Amino acid sequence: MHDTLPLLEKIGFPAIRRGKLETLQVNVGYRCNQSCFHCHVNAGPTRTEEMTGDIADLVLEFLRRRKIATLDITGGAPELNQNFRRLVHEARKLGVKVMDRCNLTILEQSGQEDLAEFLADERVEVVASMPCYLQSNVDAQRGKGVFDGSIRGLMRLNALGYGRNPDLVLNLVYNPQGPSLPPAQASLEADYKRVLGEQYGIAFNKLFVLANMPIQRFGAKLITRGEFGVYIGLLQDAHLDANLDGVMCRSLISVDWRGYIYDCDFNQMLDLPMKLGERKRAHLADLLNEPVEGNPIRVAGHCYGCTAGQGSSCGGALKEAAE
Question: Does residue 106 lie in a domain region?
């Protein structure tokens, strides 16, 4: 696989610093039941990296000690980690809002038959990957049969109250099919709600529109096809300084399965550790008592994926969030 980091590090990006830490995003492992073309994690069924119980305990201690408002759990398919449910349950006991980055088809995986009910009982916010409302587009990006499985998953979540009960939030995530900027979030959300509602009776809260990051599997494909420079140019040309104030790395830190910390999930995948004093690779344990507010954030060319056009973050378009 082509490494995009040497190319990205040559591209300048405006300097930014951290604000108040509000969200701890934790990647509990790279194993997944899918292997998606756009996946910036390069996740798949053969990945073996998995967070241990000791690191999960450290995450909970960090939430408790630093009084973090939100725990954002991701993967891979995070639900495949053996510590996932304990992490969710204990975080909720602390009063922490918990988000699960769910691919929907995991709800039908063997051993996960009661997963949807567990998420509903714990009032977990589900952020579900759904790259299109058309079967052909979803299956082309994520594999044959994924669309049908995703629809069944959404129906099951709806039946439990997700997307209908105010306490059970269900948000969907859209990624473009290829090297292009995503469409306007509000108008695409309206299309999603109309088509999924009319054809399948599905309801959800919001659609998060994300740009594809030129890293890992997607970045390697761009290099192979000779499209890497063109896509970076597209992102740079669409950059807006106004989006710098809302990028997710200002209020979030990313933790990998070993407990090492990064400014964001994308930096984690590029192996760009957070700068913390003289440490070359800081660990979550180092942050139990040390503040990060005001610290510089590591940036490179991929960061334009968050500031191009309407902006892009784990919570969707930045412009809409600001409005």
Answer: yes
